[in-house]
Amino acid sequence: MERAGRINNEKGRIPFGFMGKWLLFSYILTAGLLMLLALLLYRMDLSQKIVSIGVIVIYVAASFLAGFMVGKKIGNRKFLWGFLMGSAYFGVLAVISILMNHSAQGVAENFFTVYVICAGSGMLGGMLG
C-alpha cells in the first residue's frame, strides 16, 4: 500500500520531505552566500552591477543544487522535478520579498526574469542530476 505524500518511480519511493529538505538547504545556502556578498560589499565597496550579478549567481547556484539533488534521487522526468524545485524556490523567494516590501510593486519589476532564472537553473540541475 502506497503512503500519501510519496512518489512511486523506477528508483523507488521518494518522500516529498526529501524535496523540502533540499529546498530548505538551498535557502540556508542562499542566506550564507548573501551574507558573504554583504561582507564583500562592505570591505571592497563593490558596485551595484557586481552586487546584482552576485545575487543572480547565488539564485542560480541554489536552484541548480536543489534541482540536481532531487533529479539525482528521483531518476525519471528529472527535468520536471528540477523545474518544480526551481519554481518552488522562486515562489518562496517571491512571498518573502512581498512580505518584506509590504507590496508587490518592487518585486514586479524583475518578477518574470527571476522566475525564468530560478526555474531554468533548477531544470538544468535536474537534467544533470
Task: Outline the structure in words.
This protein has 129 residues and is mainly alpha-helical. Helices cover 79% and strands 6% of the residues. The protein has helices spanning 16-44, 48-74, 78-101, 105-108, 111-128, and strands at residues 6-9, 12-15. The protein has a two-stranded antiparallel sheet with strand order 1-2. Helix 1 (16-44) runs antiparallel to helix 2. Mean pLDDT is 83; it is low at 1-10.
How would you briefly describe this protein structure?
The protein is mostly helical and 129 residues long.
Layout: helices, strands, pairs:
Layout (H helix, E strand, L loop, with lengths): L5 E4 L2 E4 H29 L3 H27 L3 H24 L3 H4 L2 H18 L1
Antiparallel strand pairs: 1-2
Helix pairs in contact: 1-2, 2-3, 2-5, 3-5
> SSE order, as H and E?
EEHHHHH
Alpha-beta classification: mainly alpha
The global form is globular
Strands ordered across the widest β-sheet: 1-2
Q: Radius of gyration from the CA trace?
A: 16 Å
Overall pLDDT metric: 83
The tally of beta strands, per DSSP, is 2
Residue windows where pLDDT falls under 50 for at least 5 positions: 1-10
Distance between the termini: 29 Å
What kind of sheet is the major sheet? 2 strands, antiparallel
Determine the strand fraction and express it as a percent band. 5-15%
Q: How would you describe the oligomerization state of the chains in this entry?
A: single chain
Residues in helices, as a percent range? over 70%
Q: How many helical stretches?
A: 5
